[in-house]
């Protein structure tokens, strides 16, 4: 084995220090850019009074986006965000169609045709004491 | 009390007199009310016989009618009855136009208590308000909002019966009634957000004459350059004058075979020049563009609709960017199909490939800066693709868009990347790429001993040819920019997803098409990455052509690489075509 000279040793140490400095700088840069100035989207939505969602009806709320169902007094909701790549699906007869890559879902959100694989997410709907509905996306 | 009248009979007499008087006044008032009933029970002046009947005439229009004419006609036919000929609303003065019988329209004929089936009640609480004059349009800031309100709520008796075009025309006319008419501008989705409702703006003078004259002058200059072919410049010994800074960017002389247009296609030089055009036009746009989610699209509309030559500058920027992608692909193909990428030039080939990727990212970020309905799904899909990367996907996504879903922070970040982050890297790489061309011995040709043509050209001649290509490019760009407007849609809003364009920008349509067939990570992330890696490996893995074969199209030595590159480009092209014709 060749014994490294003092100059080689110093060179290796210096380069290592430069490398370490670069990594530290990179870590700082990532932390800097990772700050998120915007608050996330709301996870709770007020759906108004329960009696306005008629029995056996479907109400589209494009701002959530979600479809609100009332199946004989039982309230439920389906997220309208395509599980493939996040476009908002459009009503297509009974079911839903994604405009971006053509995924189809039936009225319960089950996949009829790919490329999506997961069904549309069901969202929790709760009735409060004063008979209004609240929807939770998380 | 009157102290002097204390006696009984006198007091009774006085009381009787007062009662009679009160009764008389009451009866008189009732008969007056019956003869001329009024809204608040206050007496209204009798119809003025001097009402100028000409005020009800059909407005004069030119042929073909302008948007303002159409608006005036619609207003005259539908709106004027209630809102008045000057937008004054249903004032007493305006109701004189109806004559004696109908001037109290909420009681007569169509609008009375027993109105016929086609009639309707006039709302008594907010009686056809004034739509012109001080404060009438106070709640709107721009014509887009005014249009939205008119389209949704008017006419009062049948909302939703107006077509979008009719509503634009009426909006234009209402602005005119308010002395805020946009001069020489037809309102539409692509400019209305930039049109204020409280002051009049004018369309800039047409940019066509100016741009055409410029194109013509430059075209003539190009002809002049072709005509003055100077054979003396082919000879280095008779070089004129002293070389200037730009001359010094070139070697004193280069082999003539390196500068044959049929060999190089001028693609590399053209790419550099288009980058310069993008730099200048992009800088000009920055003087007006506002990178905030509320104002971005409006400022783009302002550039397009109101700034003199703004539309031309924006179109030049847009079309240069699209042309740059095509020119770079042509350049890449040229380098592969002539075998020019092989060592010692293979590292420079990688720099070039990196530049192509960066330019695509610049194109995508620039596309998003429009922040209108056209970019919604491209942004959502393009960024969601990153989420599909295992392990680091989620954090990479949030790092890139600056939040948990696309929003204001995303616009700021894309703006920073577009105007500076990516641009600086590209500028450095362009310099490095050009430097390496020279360091690696210039454009690939056989070594001197194996050349058939050993003539050389001076840098003066080289620069002359470069300028010629640039001038022709500018003329073509000017013509394209005049003829084809860059896309623009209405500003991005939080709810109206149904009007969004679901297509990716054209250079990513092939990825969008691939994504229809399966796993996002495999097809949307790994496949494009694989394309870049395969192209990058060409000079390192596959056989290369011999030195003697350089400087010619389709050498035998690297046929495999040629076939592979053409195949990749063809498949991408086919997928793009498929996507163009198959969207649901």
Biggest interface: A-B, 25 and 32 residues
Distance between the termini of chain B: 92 Å
Number of helices of chain A: 1
DSSP summary, beta strand count of chain A: 10
Uncertain residue ranges of chain B: 1-5, 29-41
Helix content of chain A: 10-25%
Which percent range describes the beta-strand content of chain B? under 5%
pLDDT averaged residue by residue of chain A: 85
What is Rg of chain B? Answer: 37 Å
Strand order of the largest sheet of chain B: 1-2
Q: Determine the structural class of chain A based on helices, strands and strand pairing.
A: alpha+beta
Major beta sheet summary of chain A? 6 strands, antiparallel
Q: What is the helix/strand order of chain B?
A: HHHHHHHHEHHHHHHHHEHHHH
The shape of chain B, in one word, is elongated
Q: Provide mean pLDDT of chain B, rounded.
A: 83
Specify the oligomeric state: heterodimer
Distance between the termini of chain A: 62 Å
Element layout with pairings:
The complex is a heterodimer of chains A (138) and B (584).
Chain A: H1 6-33, E1 44-49, E2 57-61, E3 66-71, E4 74-79, E5 90-92, E6 95-97, E7 104-105, E8 111-113, E9 122-127, E10 132-136
Antiparallel strand pairs in A: 1-10, 2-3, 3-4, 4-9, 5-6, 6-7, 7-8, 9-10
Chain B: H1 8-35, H2 67-83, H3 92-95, H4 99-102, H5 143-153, H6 164-177, H7 208-227, H8 245-248, E1 253-255, H9 261-264, H10 267-286, H11 296-305, H12 310-337, H13 346-368, H14 376-387, H15 393-401, H16 408-439, E2 456-458, H17 459-483, H18 509-515, H19 520-541, H20 559-582
Antiparallel strand pairs in B: 1-2
Could you explain the architecture of this structure?
The complex is a heterodimer of chains A (138) and B (584). By secondary structure, chain A is an alpha+beta fold. Helix content of chain A is 20%, strand content 33%. Chain A is elongated, with a radius of gyration of 27 Å. Chain B is elongated. Chain B has a two-stranded antiparallel sheet with strand order 1-2. Chain B has 20 helices and two strands. In chain B, helix 18 packs across helix 19 (520-541). Residues 1-5 and 29-41 of chain B have low confidence and may be disordered. Chain B has 584 residues and is mainly alpha-helical. Chain A binds chain B through residues 30, 33-38, 40-41, 62-63, 65, 84-88, 90, 97, 99-102, 114-115, and chain B through 377, 380-381, 384-385, 395, 398-399, 402-405, 407-409, 494-498, 500, 502, 512, 515-520, 524, 583-584.
